[in-house]
């Protein structure tokens, strides 16, 4: 393909061409002439592109698709654009994002599941092959300005540290010139762990001052778009706006949740019926669409404890307010683009969910969703949940809603997030808006489409070819199908008529209206005994007459089912789906999974000033004995205060700190109970070593242990931790040396987190060995010398 400048664009970057004309000796010679330097631009008329991807929103949640949460921005875009009612995702966040940004199926780019469960298998490695360049990279190399705001869950865990490598980071190999957001699956909306480019940054205000992550992301996106159009008006932009909302924790200012007070008293069964009625009125489902049955694994609303129902109602009120709040800030971004006159020629994708609604909050919902991820959901009793009801959505909770609400928000389909077999896990309402490029307004499109189609659509809309070489590497074909053919032809035959699905053994195949599916595992049952893959029961649905997958035809049409099962296997081989991997907890262990570990062995040495270290960047101290030793220096005439080392935050973690001159160790169990051991005497001034030893009880996971504190090898205090977290402290809080960023681990030292002495080195030792030795003085001297 050749554009108006005559440059070929299949090879990126576009190769520079040497000037071979007359070269004069004197620049003042009248014959001196060189072609002018022209800025790199895409073909004339190429649109700006805004891709908005919300998190964990079921098909039936937003009002634009018949749901209870008011989303006026989505409805506004619907009125001026197109509503796609059969748009699909992968059933899980990181895989959907990897597919969206590459235009390839998620196993094709190594994202068979989330990055934290990456294995050595090509389809689940967490590594996008360099033969499959990201769409933002292609656009940047064609002259687009590119920026991402919000969630990036595509970085392998061993690459999340401050030393990278940054190949999978947005501003690294991801192709984004600017990034403001977070790395990982979720974040605290009030106290996020943020990056600008590769540098960790802190929010500019507190929740008490009105801070919320979604608003912050919108503010930065608006500032960037305005700056980009002010300084480079001829260059189109590609903006990827991916807030952490509405992934748990469901955090939103109370006034947004309070709008929905009393709205969900009827429960989730009644809510699904109401949603389907609204969906038919809005025309986002056919008039004959049937409501699918409630699975046996999900209790009816009437079966729930009456004492718990007010808590369950509040969970949904908070979620609905959270979704409306998110839509409001998406609207601010849209308004800013409109205000600078750029909206007419901006191709907007508003994808309302990267998968179905999340059923990871247990049957009763969660005050702290990390309890379930640690296998400790039982600690959140109904009585406890009733006590914390009014904290849901606030800084004091890390909450999630009940499985029943997730199922309802996926109405009218079966199942939820992670269940890639059924439409409840994979069908997400999507709106496309582009006044300059789409003549139709306010219409629906019912062609089968998939998230891998976005990249191909953007390239066709921009008049750009699919590259054959990027940065010297030959490229594999994009696997998605452009949706441009459907923009102005409502009845155009669908072109994406074959698509496989797979997630944790849940699998399905779509082919020309038919779907064959099998559910293998249940998202919220962490200890579920799974059947053999060959024992899974397959279902068959005719989408031409059964839009919601309500009538299983497997028994009536076994030959059709067999043909589709065979087709699934063919597609699975083609796209690196095999081997099917249904392991969950085992894949969290890097050794079992076969992925690299940034830190290994039994010792790690950390230095002052290090911060924003993910759990993957720090030696694992869970379910074992460990010690943490710090070489510090304190002043003679000052009271020592502050954190020496902290891992995790308000909803789970531990810290070694000094308060009012005395050392202490605290273990925070899920934000529900703190176990604190304090020294019985003041820390002497001068160069000292503080050590906390934890002697694990053993005998399984999540057990307790005894704590002993030492000054210079001398015991100065002892205590007890009754129970520990076996799997994860936090999805967003980090390890910090000399301070405790984000939400502090303990209320004991709030306001005094920064250590006011000097820290030379901190050493963590793990295992059952005796760690009573001190830090090697030569090591301390070397570190101290290097800091001068």
Automatic annotation (TrEMBL):
CDD domains, A to Z: PAS_like
InterPro entries in the record: Alkaline_phosphatase_core_sf (IPR017850), ConA-like_dom_sf (IPR013320), EF_Hand_1_Ca_BS (IPR018247), Sulfatase (IPR050738), Sulfatase_N (IPR000917)
Domain Sulfatase N-terminal: 47-463
Pfam families listed in its UniProt record: Sulfatase
Similarity section: Belongs to the sulfatase family.
Protein name (Swiss-Prot/TrEMBL): Putative arylsulfatase
């Amino acid at each position: 393909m050749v554009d108006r400048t005559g440059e070929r664009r299949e090879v990126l970057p576009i190769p520079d061409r040497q000037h071979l004309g007359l070269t004069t000796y004197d620049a003042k010679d009248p014959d001196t002439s060189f072609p002018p330097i022209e800025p790199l631009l895409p073909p004339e008329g190429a649109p700006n592109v805004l891709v908005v991807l919300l998190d964990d929103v079921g098909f039936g949640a937003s009002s634009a698709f018949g749901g209870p949460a008011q989303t006026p921005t989505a409805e506004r875009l619907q009125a001026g654009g197109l509503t796609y009612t059969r748009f699909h995702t992968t059933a899980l966040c990181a895989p959907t994002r990897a597919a969206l940004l590459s235009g390839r199926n998620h196993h094709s780019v190594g994202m068979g599941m989330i990055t934290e469960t990456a294995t050595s298998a090509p389809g689940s490695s967490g590594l996008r092959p360099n033969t499959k360049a990201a769409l933002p990279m292609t656009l940047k190399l064609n002259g687009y300005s590119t920026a991402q705001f919000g969630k990036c869950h595509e970085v392998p865990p061993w690459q999340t540290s401050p030393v990278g490598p940054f190949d999978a980071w947005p501003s690294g190999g991801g192709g984004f010139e600017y990034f403001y957001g977070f790395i990982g699956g979720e974040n605290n909306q009030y106290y996020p762990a943020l990056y600008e480019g590769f540098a960790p940054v802190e929010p500019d205000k507190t929740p008490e001052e009105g801070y919320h992550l979604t608003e912050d992301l919108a503010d930065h996106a608006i500032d960037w778009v305005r700056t980009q159009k002010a300084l480079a008006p001829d260059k189109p932009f590609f903006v990827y706006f991916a807030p952490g909302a509405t992934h748990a924790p469901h955090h939103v200012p109370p006034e947004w949740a309070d709008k929905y007070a009393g709205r969900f008293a009827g429960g989730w069964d009644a809510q699904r019926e109401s949603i389907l009625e609204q969906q038919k009125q809005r025309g986002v489902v056919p008039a004959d669409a049937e409501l699918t049955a409630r699975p046996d694994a999900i209790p009816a609303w009437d079966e729930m404890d009456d004492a718990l129902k007010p808590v369950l109602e509040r969970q949904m009120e908070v979620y609905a307010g959270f979704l409306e709040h998110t839509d409001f800030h998406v609207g601010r971004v849209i308004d800013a683009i409109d205000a600078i006159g750029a909206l007419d020629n901006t191709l907007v994708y508003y994808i309302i969910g990267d998968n179905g609604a999340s059923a990871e909050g247990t049957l009763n919902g969660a005050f702290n969703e990390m309890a379930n991820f640690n296998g400790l959901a039982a600690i959140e009793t109904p009585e406890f949940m009733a006590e914390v009801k009014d904290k849901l959505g606030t800084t004091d909770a890390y909450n999630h809603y009940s499985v029943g609400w997730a199922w309802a928000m996926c109405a009218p389909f079966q199942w939820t997030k992670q269940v890639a077999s059924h439409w409840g896990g994979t069908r997400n309402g999507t709106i496309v808006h582009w006044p300059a490029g789409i003549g139709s307004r306010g219409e629906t499109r019912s062609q089968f489409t998939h998230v891998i189609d976005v990249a191909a659509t953007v390239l066709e809309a921009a008049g750009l070819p699919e590259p054959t070489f990027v940065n010297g590497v030959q490229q594999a074909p994009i696997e998605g199908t452009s949706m441009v053919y459907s923009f102005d032809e409502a009845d155009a035959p669908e072109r994406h008529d074959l698509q496989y699905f797979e997630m944790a053994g849940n699998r399905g195949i779509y082919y020309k209206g038919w779907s064959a599916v099998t559910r293998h595992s249940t998202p919220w049952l962490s200890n579920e005994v799974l059947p053999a893959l060959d024992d899974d029961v397959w279902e068959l649905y005719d989408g031409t007459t059964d839009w919601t997958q309500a009538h299983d035809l497997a028994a009536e049409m076994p030959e059709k089912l067999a043909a589709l099962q065979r087709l699934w296997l063919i597609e699975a081989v083609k796209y690196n789906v095999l081997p099917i991997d249904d392991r969950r907890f085992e894949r969290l262990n890097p050794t079992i999974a076969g992925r690299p570990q940034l830190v290994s062995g039994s010792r790690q040495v950390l230095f002052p000033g290090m911060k924003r270290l993910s759990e993957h960047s720090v030696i694992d101290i869970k379910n074992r004995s460990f010690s943490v030793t710090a070489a510090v220096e304190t002043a003679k005439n000052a009271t020592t205060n502050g954190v020496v080392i902290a891992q995790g935050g308000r909803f789970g973690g531990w810290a070694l700190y000094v308060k009012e001159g005395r050392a202490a160790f605290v273990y925070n169990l899920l934000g529900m109970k703190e176990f604190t051991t304090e020294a019985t005497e003041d820390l002497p001034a001068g160069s000292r070593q503080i050590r906390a030893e934890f002697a694990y009880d053993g005998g399984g996971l999540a057990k307790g242990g005894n704590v002993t504190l030492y000054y210079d090898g001398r015991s100065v205090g002892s205590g007890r931790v009754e129970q520990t977290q076996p799997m994860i402290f936090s999805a967003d809080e980090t390890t910090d040396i000399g301070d405790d960023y984000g939400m502090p681990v303990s209320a004991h030292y709030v306001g005094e987190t920064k250590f006011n002495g000097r820290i030379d080195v901190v050493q963590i030792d793990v295992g059952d060995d005796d760690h009573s030795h001190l830090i090697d003085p030569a090591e301390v001297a070397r570190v101290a010398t290097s800091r001068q």
